[in-house]
């Protein structure tokens, strides 16, 4: 039986209501076929940390509410596929509501 590939997802975390400064959490996610950044974030929230905050709406590339930075480049989380470890951060770090969710998107 083939072992599942695990990837590391390093997530920006910050809750302006309780954290003094931002930090990063790293989660291991099984790569089952092709996964989007949003699939990884959903896996983390459903299986590893229900407190991870990010925004999902259409999941089709229309609303642009899921814009984040992946390895420093802005992208739509719902349309960006991943094959290896990555770092995900909010698009607008100065307008954070919580974690990967920014105001104004
Ligand atoms: S969720 Fe609407 S564009 Fe990604």
Provide the fold topology.
Blueprint: E1 5-13, E2 23-31, E3 35-36, H1 37-48, E4 67-70, E5 73-76, E6 81-82, E7 86-90, E8 96-98, E9 101-102
Parallel strand pairs: 1-7
Antiparallel strand pairs: 1-2, 3-6, 4-5, 4-7, 8-9
This protein binds FE2/S2 (inorganic) cluster (FES).
Query: For this structure, what is the CATH homologous superfamily?
Result: Beta-grasp domain
Number of helices: 1
Assigned CATH class: Alpha Beta
Mean pLDDT: 92
Task: Give structural notes.
By secondary structure, the protein is mainly beta. The chain has a single domain (5-102), classed as Ubiquitin-like (UB roll) (Roll), CATH 3.10.20. It has one helix and nine strands. The strands form three sheets. It has a five-stranded mixed β-sheet with strand order 2-1-7-4-5, with helices on one face. The chain has a two-stranded antiparallel sheet with strand order 3-6. The protein has a two-stranded antiparallel sheet with strand order 8-9. The longest helix has 12 residues, at 37-48. FE2/S2 (inorganic) cluster (FES) is lined by residues 56-59, 61-66, 76, 78. Residues 56-59, 61-66, 76, 78 line the site of FE2/S2 (inorganic) cluster.
What characteristics describe this protein?
105 residues, mainly beta, Ubiquitin-like (UB roll), 5-stranded mixed sheet, 1 helix, binds FE2/S2 (inorganic) cluster
Structure, briefly:
This protein is mostly beta strands and 105 residues long.
């Amino acid at each position: 039986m083939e072992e599942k590939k695990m990837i590391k997802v390093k997530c920006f975390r910050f809750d302006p209501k309780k954290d003094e400064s931002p930090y990063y959490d790293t989660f291991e996610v099984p790569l089952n076929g092709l996964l989007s950044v949003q699939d990884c974030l959903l896996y983390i929230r459903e299986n590893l940390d229900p407190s991870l905050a990010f925004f999902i709406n259409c999941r089709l590339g229309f609303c642009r509410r899921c814009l984040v930075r992946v390895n420093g480049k802005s992208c739509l989380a719902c349309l960006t596929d991943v094959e290896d470890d990555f770092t995900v951060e909010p698009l607008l770090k100065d307008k954070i509501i919580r974690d990967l969710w920014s105001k104004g998107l």
